[in-house]
Amino acid sequence: MTLARCFCFCLALILGGKAASKDAGGEQAAPDSAAAMAGLAKQFDKHPLIMIGEQHRNVQQHVFLRKLIRDPAFICKANDIVIEFGNARLQNVADAYVAGETVTEAQMQSMWRETEVMFAWNSPVYREFYEAVREINEKRICPHSIRLLLGDPPVDWSLVKTVEDFKRLEDRDVFFADVVEREVLAKKRRALLISGSLHALRQMPKEEGTGFEEPNAVQIIERKHPGTLFTVATVPSQAAAETMKMGPPPSFRVVRGTDLERADFGMIAPAWTATPVIVNGKHEWKLDAAKQWPRMGKVIDGVLYLGGDETKLFPSPTIYLDPVYQQQLRHRAAIIKEFNGQDFMPVLDDLIREAQSGKTESHP
Question: Is the pTM of this model over 0.70?
Answer without folding.
Answer: yes
